[in-house]
Design a protein that fits this description.
Elements (H helix, E strand, L loop, with lengths): L17 E2 L5 E2 L21 H10 L4 E2 H8 L3 H13 L4 E6 L2 E6 L6
Antiparallel strand pairs: 1-2, 3-5, 4-5
Helix pairs in contact: 1-2
Length: 111
């Protein structure tokens, strides 16, 4: 009869622990130190929220249709962006003129 006992293979870990410069174990699997921290660039590319802010800061503010046209968002996304700006501390005022709601920033960011 043949022997059915086989040797079990040792299980491999997803990442082999390595020791870092302090001598402590690091489960990251790489021998290099932490990646270099990038400095934020001084010239930030404007995003859609920046366009919405510019519209809201102008004289008379902006309507929902103007926000949708400028950003390419759907109306519910533009309203959600207004809510996000409120949560960030912008004071947004809503006025109705001729049946249209106009939104405008009436103050600076309150922290």
């Amino acid at each position: 009869m043949k022997s059915t006992a086989t040797t079990k293979r040792q299980r491999r870990m997803a990442r082999q622990p390595s020791s870092n410069a302090n001598g402590t174990l690091d489960a990251g699997g790489s021998d290099s130190a932490s990646p270099a921290i990038r400095e934020p660039s001084e010239t930030k590319k404007p995003n859609k929220t920046d366009f919405a802010l510019a519209l809201l800061k102008r004289e008379g503010g902006a309507t929902l249709d103007e926000l949708v046209e400028a950003t390419g968002w759907l109306p519910h996304s533009a309203r959600a962006a207004l809510t996000a700006l409120r949560k960030k501390g912008h004071a947004i005022e809503r006025t109705k003129l001729d049946g249209l709601s106009r939104y405008a920033i009436v103050g600076s960011v309150s922290q």
